[in-house]
């Protein structure tokens, strides 16, 4: 058993040496060094770049327009809901006051008013749910449009460049380290904004 382990270790050592020799005797990739002595290989087999998504959303004109559009819709929905909620609260308080002061002519009349308020409350909850769903649907639609414009532009951006993969980096979650030259956010923002400005002409 010990002899088998020694043989296996020997085979593994030879394999590592062969891989080492093959790696360093092959054609060297052209390398572009940054100011700190780190390097990005231009001729790598699978060059990777990344986009800082937060910066993209803050600086891409279309993303800002989409965000503003969504905020306006949310503001409008909230104002509409708040107005109806205020009316309901006033009606509910008036009902409570009438009950406490025996303001209803009959018990039947009080029950009718209570039923009307319960129905108004259900309507208010339904309105809240409907407005929330509409807002979520609008957000999903606008996010899809935003994603489509980005994906379409990345096809154009990557043409003629060595990138095989462009990652999304949100709040530094996906890319914990990236050498200089791998972050293509500024180039993407510049290109997207130019296309967006052109589409508005």
Into which percentage range does the β-strand content fall?
A: 5-15%
Q: Which blocks of ≥5 consecutive residues have pLDDT under 50?
A: 7-13, 18-45
Average pLDDT taken over every residue: 78
Question: Can you give the helix content as a percent range?
Answer: 55-70%
Q: Give the termini separation.
A: 78 Å
| Radius of gyration of CA atoms, rounded to a whole number | 32 Å
> H/E element string?
HEEEHHHEH
Beta strand count: 4
What is the structural class? Answer: mainly alpha
Largest sheet geometry:
2 strands, antiparallel
How would you describe this protein?
With 201 residues, this protein is mainly alpha-helical. The chain has one domain. The chain is 69% helix and 8% strand. It has 5 helices and 4 strands; from the N terminus they run H-E-E-E-H-H-H-E-H. The chain has helices at 2-25, 53-59, 61-100, 107-158, 185-199; strands at 31-33, 39-41, 48-52, 165-169. The termini are far apart. Residues 7-13 and 18-45 have low confidence and may be disordered.
């Amino acid at each position: 058993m010990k002899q088998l382990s020694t043989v296996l270790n020997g085979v593994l050592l030879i394999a590592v040496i062969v891989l080492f020799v093959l790696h360093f005797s092959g054609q060297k990739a052209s390398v572009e060094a940054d100011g700190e002595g780190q390097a990005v290989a231009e001729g790598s087999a699978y060059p990777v770049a990344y986009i800082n998504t937060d910066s993209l959303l803050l600086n891409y004109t279309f993303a800002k327009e989409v965000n503003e559009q969504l905020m306006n819709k949310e503001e409008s929905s909230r104002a509409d809901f708040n107005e109806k909620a205020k009316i309901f609260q006033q009606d509910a308080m008036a009902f409570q006051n009438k009950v406490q002061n025996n303001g209803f002519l009959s018990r039947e009349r009080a029950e009718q008013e209570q039923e009307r308020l319960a129905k108004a409350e259900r309507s208010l909850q339904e309105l809240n749910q409907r407005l929330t769903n509409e807002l979520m649907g609008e957000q999903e639609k606008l996010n899809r449009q935003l994603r489509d414009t980005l994906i379409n532009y990345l096809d154009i951006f990557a043409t003629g460049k060595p990138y095989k993969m462009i990652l999304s980096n949100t709040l530094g979650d996906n890319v914990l380290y990236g050498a200089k030259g791998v972050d293509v956010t500024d180039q993407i923002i510049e290109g997207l904004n130019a296309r967006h400005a052109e589409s508005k002409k």
